[in-house]
């Protein structure tokens, strides 16, 4: 695409003909979209760009951000604009200037995530499907977390991986055994409003310091699933977990359940990045089946 004409056309569509693009600089870290910091005479913005056939990614991301904006006390970037231009889809967000992640930041982050997880629903799921990364994520409603986890999280990823030749029938058989044992392994909890994809790349310390979360895969799920995901790649200070537990105490034995919850993001990574993530899946299956 012609970058200059794209940015000028896109931003003037939302801000008017007096909008002047002063600088566009790439923002590293994403593997799905082209991401940039756009400095203008009317402020600084963050923009994601993808092909036109990927526009639903941005539509569902907007819905997720708006849901969190309404119900969470964590910082959520403002959605500035959504649309298509020059054969591309895009999402324009508020630019968040980085701050320093000190103890106050981690205390706020943990406490406010605990408050967010207290936002509940009558069922697990959501009123619409969305995405986890670039993969489809089904959110059909279930009264039971176990049923939701099996039918809407594990089975779709297993089917995708099997159809792609990434896993064999022996792993499917082990999962069938796990499904029969799953319910008593994880304690009952009411559905919690989850970010859904909360790893170290999807939060930011803003000025203040204020915790911000973005790139959501929102749904009402088991809150331990969210907390387990934060441990997969590190990046969360112990003070975060302490502050969370003070706000919304975690039931005993959580450390032993982390591997179960992380089967979903591991399978997502198998489907996105290949079989190198299978070893973690196999270890969990060996332990629990």
General description of the model:
With 289 residues, the chain is α+β, with helices and mostly antiparallel strands. It folds into two domains: 3-94, Phosphorylase Kinase, domain 1 (2-Layer Sandwich), CATH 3.30.200.20; 103-288, Aminoglycoside 3'-phosphotransferase, Chain: A, domain 2 (Alpha-Beta Complex), CATH 3.90.1200. Helices cover 43% and strands 19% of the residues. It is built from ten helices and eleven strands. The protein has helices spanning 3-15, 55-71, 103-117, 145-163, 169-181, 223-230, 238-247, 254-261, 263-273, 278-288; strands at residues 21-26, 34-40, 43-51, 79-85, 88-94, 130-132, 135-137, 192-194, 203-206, 210-213, 219-221. It has a five-stranded antiparallel sheet with strand order 1-2-3-5-4, sandwiched between helices. Helix 9 (263-273) packs antiparallel against helix 10 (278-288). The longest helix is centred in the middle third of the chain and has 19 residues, at 145-163. It starts with a helix and ends with a helix. The model has no long low-confidence stretch (mean pLDDT 96).
